[in-house]
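4.2 Preliminary Data

To establish feasibility before requesting continued support, the project team ran the inverse folding procedure on a target of 439 residues. The structure was first converted into the token representation described in Section 3, and no sequence information of any kind was made available to the design step. The complete token record follows.
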């Protein structure tokens, strides 16, 4: 018996519109829906056989390439032997993966013991990190950044600083500090880290009990519009927060696994060592998986009560995760992200020179953004132009992401196997899309 799948667009759209919950029906990028049938490395093909460059990376989940043969082979081999084994039993695959993942963490003096807790997703990892920080410190208040996105679960929403992702009924004890946006931040362009670090002190004094559980920071805000933390911000935040009893939680769900090009983890650019690191998305190259990696002493109090995630240490997903680490190392994926990302960023600067609707281009490695504005002086966000360019890029075989607090940014986060040969097509497609705005 084989299950029959109807690949026609009309029937797929009908089933989705009829049987998906309203929350999922809203999350559709294009005005006209599309169905993807195949993926290979940085490319996608729709049900009609048309080829696209995936600059979305399926929401940054595809790190080393769609259906990467080494990752697929590792997962298939494990699934055929034992698809799932609950965490209460021992299994060598997640045990090996935990060891290999811990080895990627910074440990300059060889005095930090890193331990791993696998989860099903990044949102669950964020929830766990919040619980871990509060349990270890005995404090409740957490700091988060405006324009941050940490996930859709209730706890993760509570530390997400974008109103479009915040639903009623979220838990409290969270205070927001302004994100150190060097383009449109509250202290003006290229203000550096210092004035934003002062805001951390002010917020602790005004909006917390004075003793806090920690601060959670994306080294590069992903959905927030690719906002890179300026030099000194994460290290300075860690210093201020630790002085008030708290921990530094680094959210590397989007920026991790070599995506920024210069480092395996985004926070390494600032020379800081977090207390807790949250990761997901690229960890499994599309297989559902997340992890919290923490200093051993910080994770220890969690043993006082039960805590596990049903599929967190799933051996099939962990086999895929082991293969991802292997591919990153053997195929120089991080270096490719640095080189190709730099070449693509240069082309984005050319676009900015030629198209006044572009207010800013930015990013590092293969984590880039184009921000649209109605006026370069006022920097008023322009979500309408962003949506129009996004739609027009489809005609050139480009799949991107609209993001940012005002949906005024195009986010480019492709699989890290994107090649220099792809850069011309990307630049040309974007240039045509912007050109259509002026006729």
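Position-by-position output of the design step:
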């Amino acid at each position: 018996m084989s299950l029959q799948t109807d690949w026609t667009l009309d029937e797929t759209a009908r089933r989705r519109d009829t049987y998906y919950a309203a929350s999922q029906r809203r999350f559709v990028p294009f005005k006209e829906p599309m169905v993807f049938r195949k993926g290979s490395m940085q490319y996608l093909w729709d049900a009609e056989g048309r080829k696209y460059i995936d600059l979305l990376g399926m929401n940054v989940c595809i790190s080393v390439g769609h259906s990467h043969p080494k990752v697929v082979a590792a997962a298939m081999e494990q699934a055929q032997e034992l698809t799932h084994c609950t965490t209460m039993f021992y299994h060598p695959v997640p045990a090996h993966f935990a060891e290999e993942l811990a080895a990627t963490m910074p440990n300059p003096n060889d005095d930090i013991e890193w331990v791993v807790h696998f989860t099903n997703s990044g949102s669950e990892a964020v929830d766990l990190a919040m619980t871990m920080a509060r349990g270890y410190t005995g404090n409740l208040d957490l700091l988060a950044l405006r324009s941050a996105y940490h996930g859709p679960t209730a706890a993760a929403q509570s530390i997400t600083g974008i109103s479009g992702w915040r639903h009623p009924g979220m838990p409290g004890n969270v205070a927001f500090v302004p994100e150190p946006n060097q383009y449109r931040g509250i202290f003006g362009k290229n203000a550096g880290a210092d004035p934003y670090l002062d805001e951390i002190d002010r917020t602790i004094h005004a909006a917390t009990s004075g003793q806090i559980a920690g601060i959670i920071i994306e080294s590069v805000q992903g959905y927030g519009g690719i906002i890179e933390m300026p030099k000194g911000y994460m290290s300075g935040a860690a210093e201020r927060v630790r002085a008030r009893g708290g921990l530094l939680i680094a959210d590397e769900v989007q920026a991790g696994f070599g995506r920024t090009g210069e480092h395996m983890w985004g926070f390494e650019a600032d020379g800081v060592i977090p207390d807790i690191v949250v990761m997901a998305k690229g960890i499994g190259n599309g297989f559902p998986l997340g992890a919290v990696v923490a200093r051993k002493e910080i994770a220890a109090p969690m043993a006082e009560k039960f805590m596990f995630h049903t599929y967190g240490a799933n051996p099939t997903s962990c086999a895929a995760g082991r293969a991802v680490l292997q591919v990153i190392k053997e195929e120089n994926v991080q270096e490719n992200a640095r080189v190709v990302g730099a070449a693509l960023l240069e082309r984005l600067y050319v676009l900015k020179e030629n198209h006044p609707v572009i207010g800013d281009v930015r990013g590092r490695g293969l984590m880039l953004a184009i921000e649209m504005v109605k006026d370069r002086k006022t920097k008023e966000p322009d979500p309408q132009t962003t949506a129009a360019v996004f739609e027009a890029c489809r005609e050139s075989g480009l799949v991107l992401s609209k993001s940012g607090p005002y949906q005024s940014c195009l986010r480019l986060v492709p699989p890290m196997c994107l090649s220099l040969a792809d850069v011309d097509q990307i630049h040309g497609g974007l240039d045509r899309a912007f050109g259509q705005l002026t006729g």
